[in-house]
Specification:
alpha/beta; 5 helices; 32% strand
Amino acid sequence: MRAGVLALQGAFRAHSEMLDALGVETVEVRTPEDLSGVEMLFFPGGESTTMTKLVDSSGLRVPLGERIVAGMAVFATCAGLILLAREVLGGRADQEPLALLDVTVRRNAYGRQRESFEAPLTIAGISGGAFPGVFIRAPVLEETGSAVDVLATQGDHPVLVRSGAIWAATFHPELCGDLRLHQRFLDEVGGN
């Protein structure tokens, strides 16, 4: 199994470390050529406006869209979720998401850096107790489409969703040291 990690900006190394711990070969994806041979892709957290600009300047927008529409499995966290969303609220006027996940997301909805927090999450299909949710300038899912399954909530908002082979979290599972969510994703979509 070979996983790509979108390595343009943000916490891509943290995803690579989680995947390495699970025995998955990883490739840092920075150009369209880097997508060759990648069976799944991880979109890290970071700064969504910058990430969007870099996806365009690197020439990745079209090939990413084509591969994901064709069924490549994707796991996106925080800014990565914003990049995949159908609609982004609170973003810049020139911030155009990939529109591959039927959600409306509000950037930085919990507030600034100082309002970042951790919360125990109950995630459908994960046993062994609460999962540590790390929310850093986290977005909020305002709306999810009918084909989007909610796997976890925090308060009144979905924080982990799945639509086909796309999984997306408003929090950072790559920063908590708990491998269970990455393992569950791999178990479910690893054959894609």
